[in-house]
Amino acid sequence: MFGFQTGRKITMNKIKIALVDDHTIVREGFKMLLNSSDRFEVVAEAGDGDEAIGMLENNDVDVLLLDIYMPKMNGIDLCEQLKSKGMKTPVLFLSMHNNNEYFMKAIKVGASGFLLKDCERDELFLAVNKIADGETYFANNVSNVLLKSFIGGKKVAKNKEDKLLTARERDILLLAMEGHSAKAIGERLFISSRTVDKHRSNIMNKFNVHSTIELINYVRNNNLV
Question: Do 155 and 97 fall within a single domain?
Answer without folding.
Answer: no
